[in-house]
Design goal:
There is one protein chain. By secondary structure, the protein is an alpha+beta fold. It has two domains: 2-131 and 358-422, Rossmann fold (3-Layer(aba) Sandwich); 147-329, RecF/RecN/SMC, N-terminal domain (Glutathione S-transferase Yfyf (Class Pi), Chain A, domain 2, Up-down Bundle), CATH 1.20.1050. Helix content is 42%, strand content 22%. The chain is built from 14 helices and 16 strands. The protein has helices spanning 2-10, 48-60, 141-144, 147-161, 165-189, 194-236, 250-253, 276-279, 284-297, 299-305, 326-329, 332-354, 371-380, 399-402; strands at residues 14-21, 28-32, 37-41, 79-88, 91-101, 108-115, 118-120, 132-136, 243-248, 273-275, 316-321, 324-325, 359-363, 387-391, 406-411, 414-417. The strands form three sheets. A six-stranded antiparallel sheet has the order 2-1-4-5-6-7, covered by helices on one side. It has a six-stranded mixed sheet with strand order 8-13-14-3-15-16, sandwiched between helices. Strand 6 and strand 7 (118-120) form a beta hairpin. The two termini are 40 Å apart.
Length: 423
């Protein structure tokens, strides 16, 4: 175990240079990033978060903050690009991502993806190269937000661990679309003939097949993350809190979500929850059987509502502290600590899988933590891990965070180095 830990500490992805063109509020920028810690300081709405977002986009081809890709293009411009040069596993690498706006429209018209100078047709090619773990205030939605936030978080980690999972998600999404079309047709016809039942059964089998793979992958991930998150949450609470997680089949209770994934009704009951550790013992075939039963039970309701109400596109995770819901009963401080614990567990899982530390992107969160939590957070990271931090001020930072840090000021989308003697 000690040899593994030493190997993990000896390797870390290290960004060397970030080039931006027409990204958000940046016109043209080329920013060298130092090893260790880099701190971006500036007022709000100056571009600090945009800089971290650009790095995430370069690593995945998607943004957690943008409602649509076209939002990433600077106002009045036709194209944006992000290029990041970095070192990984002892080799120099480079990723490039660009999108252009359709003439006379707000939608994206084309994408360019390059990895180490080689063009690719899909942004999927970016995944697994520039691996990052980010923590921003928006990550509190993992606790406070609707089920969609937690589903996307789990699926995003699985994709970084296993890029081929994209095929499963894509196949499942296509099944749901086709099945919804059939449900709408059946509703409009007002009756279900034998041929219709046979056709619906075909889509049911496909949904259960791909859906079981998604559920199994999510539950496996939860069981991998839970020990580390539980340990860190216990440390943060002075051994007073125990974290537990359940996988929630929303289909069993028919709970509803709005279009943005917000839960519209109360917390799940025991009937629709299964402890992650218990569910992890289920085989895919057993999960597929469970999904098939739920589809059969709700077939009439699905036709009446013209949409698929069963499956992992509606499921959730219930997080509990000392047996009670973290969403309903945890204080703001407890919720923030829990998100930290989940992010630390994510970091450790990705580090173990890749044999190197991902780049840490801490967006305006350290200044909100007391010194004790700052120290605990630092102790959870490999000393070699490259960390990029944004903040509006340095007051309240533990001295260790500032030690040997490269500091930049950010104003109106321009980045300038700060003389350490002025700090």
């Amino acid at each position: 175990m000690l040899e593994v830990e030493q190997r993990l500490k000896a390797n870390a992805i290290e960004i060397k240079l970030v080039r931006l063109r027409n990204f958000r509020n940046y016109g043209a920028a080329a920013v060298p990033v130092g090893a260790g810690k880099t701190i971006l300081i500036g007022e709000n709405a100056q571009g600090k978060s945009n800089f971290l977002e650009a790095i995430e986009v370069a690593g995945s081809g998607r943004s957690r903050r943008a409602a649509q890709d076209a939002d990433l293009i600077a106002w009045g411009e036709k194209q944006m690009s992000v290029e990041v040069s970095f070192r990984r596993l002892g080799e120099d690498e480079q990723v490039f991502f660009a999108i252009s706006r359709q003439p006379g429209a707000s939608r994206v018209g084309g994408r360019q993806v390059k990895v180490n100078g080689v063009s690719h047709s899909s942004a999927r090619a970016l995944i697994g190269h520039l691996v990052t773990v980010g923590f921003a205030s928006q990550d509190l939605n993992l606790i406070r937000g609707g089920p969609a936030y937690r589903r996307e978080w789990m699926d995003g980690i699985i994709l970084r661990l296993r890029p081929s999972f994209h095929d499963v998600l894509s196949s499942y999404a296509k099944v749901v679309v086709q099945r919804n079309r059939l449900l709408k047709t059946l509703y409009e016809k007002g009756r279900v003939a034998v041929a219709d039942q046979d056709q619906l059964l075909v889509w049911d089998r496909q949904l259960a097949r791909f859906g079981s793979q998604i559920v199994k992958a999510r539950v496996r991930l939860l069981t991998e993350l839970l020990p580390g998150a539980r340990e860190f949450q216990s440390h943060l609470s002075g051994q007073k809190e125990r974290l537990e997680a359940d996988y929630v089949f929303r289909s069993l209770e028919g709970r509803e979500e709005s279009e943005d994934g917000q839960l519209l009704v109360a917390e799940p009951t025991g009937r629709d929850c299964l402890a992650a550790e218990s569910l992890s013992r289920y085989q895919e075939e057993e999960i597929a059987g469970l999904l098939s039963r739920m589809l059969k039970e709700r077939r009439g309701e699905e036709i009446a509502r013209r949409q698929t109400l069963v499956g992992p596109h509606r499921d959730d995770v219930s997080l509990r502290l000392n047996g009670v819901s973290a969403v309903t009963f945890a204080s703001q401080g407890q919720q923030r600590s829990l998100v930290l614990a989940l992010k630390v567990a994510e970091l450790r899982r990705l580090t173990a899988a890749a044999g190197e530390s991902p780049v840490l992107l801490l967006d305006d969160v350290l200044a909100e933590l007391d010194c004790g939590r700052q120290r605990l957070l630092m102790s959870a990271f490999s000393p070699q891990a490259q960390t990029i931090i944004t903040t509006t001020h340095l007051a309240g930072f533990e001295p260790e965070w500032l030690e040997d840090a490269t500091i930049y000021s950010v104003a109106r989308g321009e980045v300038e180095a700060v003389d350490r003697g002025r700090v």
